[in-house]
Amino acid sequence: MKINKLVMATNNKNKLREVREIFSPLGIEVISQKDAGADTNPEENGSTFSENAYIKAKTLYDVVKLPVIADDSGLCVDFLEGRPSIHSARYAPEGQECEKILEEMKDAPDSQRTAKFVCVIAFIDENGNSEFISGECSGKIGYEKKGLNGFGYDPIFMCGEKSFAEISSDDKNKISHRAKALKGLYELLKERYCD
After folding, report:
1. Model pLDDT, residue 109
2. What integer pLDDT is reported at residue 195 of this predicted model?
3. d(Cα 39, Cα 31) in Å, to the nearest integer?
4. Average pLDDT per 10 consecutive residues for the chain, totaling 195 residues
5. Among 91, 95, 100, 176, which residue's Cα sits nearest to residue 136?
6. H or E element that contains 102
7. CA-CA distance, 6 to 18, in Å (whole number)?
8. Cis, bond preceding 84 (omega within 30 deg of 0)
């Protein structure tokens, strides 16, 4: 069963562009939920990234009855017992995410500043079968915001000597949690749904 079109549970232009670039060699057209005539915004009340990704994917699939993907991602900080995790987007008022984490970690020594970004993609094919693909990117929480690229927690997430907000989007797209999950999905689609 070949897939020609994939609906993504997002209207975020940056996410769409990233996914389109990755899947273009497969000849798969990726469209937003809006372009598919669906305006879903389900409550993400799952307790894991996988559950929230599935909630978004299944809600969209029930409307469009086409192959769909949805992702859920977040930052997990060891010193904060894994927080903010699935609550990353709502952990602090918009624009204050970094400040909140830095404040909570002001007493954390360097050895305890480990963290990772996690992304889980839920894929549902046209028959309603689902698959989950995950990706992680490990790093550390810095001591201050650095860089002007990126968004959310990127300015305090150190990957090597630079924060995610200090590297180009092209470089970030090679090593990020979402890039790794999308690469896994690419391989799955290539193997099962492409000629």
Report:
1. 96
2. 64
3. 13
4. 91 85 90 93 94 97 96 97 95 93 96 98 96 97 93 94 91 89 94 82
5. 176
6. helix 97-104
7. 14
8. yes
The reported pLDDT for the residue numbered 11 is 83
72 is catalytic: yes
DSSP 131: E
User: What are the residue ranges spanned by the domains of the chain?
Assistant: 5-193
Q: Identity (one letter) of the amino acid at 5? A: K
Amino acid making up residue 105: M
User: 45 to each of 48, 69, 110, how far by Cα in Å?
Assistant: 9, 18, 34
Bridge partners, 119 (sequence order):
73, 135
Q: Which two tokens stand for residue 185?
A: 């999905």
Note whether 15 and 121 are within 8 A (CB): no
What pLDDT score does 173 carry?
80
- The CATH number corresponding to 5-193 among 3.90.950.10, 3.10.129.10, 3.90.550.10, 2.120.10.10 equals 3.90.950.10
Please, which residues have CB within 8 angstroms of residue 167's CB and are 6 or more apart in sequence?
147, 149, 159
Q: Is the pTM of the predicted complex or chain greater than 0.85?
A: yes
Annotated catalytic residue, options 72, 110, 154, 195: 72
